Amino acid sequence: MKQLTSYEGLRCANCGAAMQGEFCHECGQSIHSVLKPMHHMVEETVETVLHIDSRIVHTLPPLLLKPGFLTLEYFAGRRMRYIAPFRLMFVLCLLSFFVFHLAIDQVADKIPANGRPLVSVDSSAIAAAASPAEVRKALQDELDGLQRARDTGVLPPNVLEQARVGEQELRQAANRRLAVLGAAPMPAASLAAPPAAATVNITGDTKPRDALPKATKGESKPVQIAWLPDAVNARLTALAQQAYRNWRTFKHGDPAASAEAKQRMINGVFSALPPTMFVMIPAFAILLKLFYIFRRRLYMEHLIVALHSHAFMFLSLLLVTLVGMLSTWLRPHAAWAGSTLGWLQAALILWLPAYLLLMQKRVYHQGWPMTLLKFWFVGWCYVWLLMFALMVAAALGMAH
Predict the structure, then answer these.
(1) Is 41 exposed, middle or buried (0-12, 13-18, 19+ CB in 10 A)?
(2) Interior CA angle at 250 toward 279 and 141, to 5°?
(3) Residue range 56-100, pLDDT digits in tens
(4) What is the pLDDT of residue 158?
């Protein structure tokens, strides 16, 4: 049972008002000092964390499984048990894009940067050698190429692992050729796995990273839009030229520079996506306001619907990405588990439009024919706005 405390005679240290409770009714300052023993601070921290955890438990399951429930609770004034809409959307947005970025990086690392593989172990010169000396020279040339490529510093971990295996294959091919020629094999120490620092043989000659073809020396045409200020045109020109250089490097540069340009553009796109989505939320609320103008609802109500809708979409993106990554990892080891997760991923994708339709029906309380019609029009307009926003984010990302 909480003890009753008398605050008679106490005054606020900030404004001097007579205290009637733990907080000043004039300025809101607490009567408690911030200078506390360490164990009190630890107790308050634990209490805060547990409080947040309890709100997560009350928020995430309804967000995923009960369309419109959180929005209606918020409208009814029952808000303390749940995470605030903007905070919920913000955290899920950053978390989902972070995980999606990791998944894209894993896929991008397996794709050749400009049509030429980052790892290319060529043992034809070793197989064609006519003497033991030529075998050793061909092997040394390949290993020297690996060592020169090591200095690029832009090769992903999976490529480094492929390079380690490729170097072992080269050494084994050299030993097989030496055996055919009747020469003594190379020492066993030479066949040991090379250290992790040894990297990849880059296709083609190993020229410096800044050595680009002449095509990259060109620049895109200046941007001149008559109704825009000169400063804006100059900024657009700089972005266009940087995007042009990134793209030319990606398409025509040496593999190391191409891989670096590809990663730079991917990072730029994902850095531009969260701000882009924050712009889409009020735009989606405006669409709801226009299509439900006769429902006499405030714009803030539509904004809450938009925040919860996007929070659900980000949560769905997060779950779909995690399930997909787990399915890819499990499929080679347990095919049945990978297939099951694949079906779960498909169910999550199908649940996305069904959830948004049910949410719109339960929040705005209209009949099914009108709800379906407005859902189709709102979705059609939003998809076009989203495509435009994603193209802007992609353009900004390419100019990173």
Answers:
(1) exposed
(2) 145
(3) 889 999 999 999 999 999 999 999 889 999 999 999 999 999 998
(4) 59
Ordered by start, the domain boundaries in the chain are 1-33, 85-114+254-398, 124-191
Between the CA of residue 170 and those of 104, 207, 252, what are the distances in Å? Answer: 31, 22, 28
Can you read off the two tokens belonging to residue 27? 């300025």
What is the SS3 assignment for 210? coil
Cα end-to-end distance, the chain, whole Å: 59
Cα separation, 100 vs 314, whole angstroms? 10
Distances, alpha carbon 334 to alpha carbons 103, 234, 324, 326, 346, in Å: 20, 56, 14, 11, 19
* Residue 184 reports pLDDT greater than 70: yes
**Biggest alpha carbon distance in the chain?**
104
**Percent of the chain at pLDDT above 70?**
76
Q: What is the DSSP string of 125-181?
A: HHHH--SHHHHHHHHHHHHHHHHHHHTT----HHHHHHHHHHHHHHHHHHHHHHHHT
Examine the pLDDT at 264 and tell me if it is beyond 70.
Answer: yes
Q: What's the rounded Cα separation, in Å, for the pair 381 and 392?
A: 17
Q: Which of 79, 87, 94, 88 shows the shortest CA–CA distance to 60?
A: 88
Predicted TM-score (pTM) of this structure? 0.65
Tens digits of per-residue pLDDT, 304-321?
999 999 999 999 999 999
Cα–Cα distances (Å) from 366 to 198, 259, 307, in that order, read: 65, 52, 21
Q: What is the CA radius of gyration of the chain?
A: 31
Task: Determine the Cα–Cα distance for residues 210 and 152; give it in Å rounded to an integer.
Answer: 10
| Cβ within 8 Å of residue 68, ≥6 positions away | 308, 358, 359, 360, 361, 362, 363
CA pair distance 94, 235, nearest whole angstrom: 27
- pLDDT at 122 > cutoff 50: yes
Which range, of 66-70, 107-111, 300-304, 329-333, averages the lowest pLDDT? 107-111
So what's the pLDDT on residue 219? 58
Is residue 193 very low, low, confident or very high in pLDDT (cuts 50, 70, 90)?
very low
Encoding tokens for residue 53? 């955890």
d(CA 118, CA 114): 9
